[in-house]
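Notes, p. 3: input format for complexes.
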Amino acid sequence: PAQLHQRSKMTYHNITLPTRMRRMRYHDFSRRLMREHRLGVDDLICPLFVTEGEGLRVGVASMPGVERLSLDLLLAEAQALYALGIPAIALFPVVAAEQKSLDAAEAYNPDGLVQRAVRALKQAVPGLGIITDVALDPYTVHGQDGLLDAKGYVVNDATVAVLVKQALSHADAGADVVAPSDMMDGRIGAIRQALEAGQHHNTLILAYAAKYASAFYGPFRDAVGSAGNLGKGNKYSYQMDPANGDEALREVGLDLQEGADMVMVKPGLPYLDIIRRIKDTYAVPTFAYQVSGEYAMLKAAAQNGWLDERAVVLESLLAFKRAGSDAILTYYAKAVAQWLKEAE
Ligand code: PBG
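Output follows (344 residues plus PBG):
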């Protein structure tokens, strides 16, 4: 009968299927054996916001769970992160309005908030890698990452001269890694030369090589209080156009030539293609920054019960690894370190 014939044909077809992708997915052991990428605590960089004062812990409205800490509490937090096995932290200052200026001189004050924080951190938790942000936006009254000319244009070379002073002040304070996030041309070379001349031969440079002019930075600007200063201003004349990929490769090439040890792609998840292209082209330490807006999206959905927070965060970070990131800077670093420990 026709029906029977149909069934036997189907069976025959099934038996001779030479490749069944689902075989390896059937067992837990085989899924584990074939897994190509892993997320570990060694991959994490934790950003921390430091503010003046004592015993101060100030939330960020657009980043629930993220707090600005005064130095005393920052040290305790750094110790906790180190105990969890997190290799490094990235420090961002909340600069008081009266310390902001047109020339951003507070950026290289040897007794500024960042410089004091670095000294205290290196004393309290010597094994924890300390990464400092080299950029002027927290220190300028207009919230731009550089000095302005009469037309409001961010001037390149004069800004680089200030960035060099800022980077040196961080290295003098004991920063392990200086991380220029400003996107001025030639700043990596200028900082590298100054570090060499200043006997800081082993200070690392993490270059924000491919940093895009992104709307995902909004919550960060709330956190450091630069959003109001920037107002309706934008950073299109120095940060990259989200439409471009080839340009990121040129930026990375230049930063490496100028002496960068590591390169950063920022933001993260919307730019996984950029991470992959950089890793394939240069095979250098390539990091990704899961920025404030990415954190805010995940957190908001989680708080509404729309997404399983732990599952989506771990999946997102694993995607960074698959794309070629060696390390990931994420506001979820502490939570992830705790989740990974629980899963051990
Ligand atoms: C600027 C800087 C930015 C961030 C860190 N340093 C972006 C900007 O304001 O242009 C954003 C980080 C984030 O959104 O998490 N030097």
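The mean pLDDT is 95.
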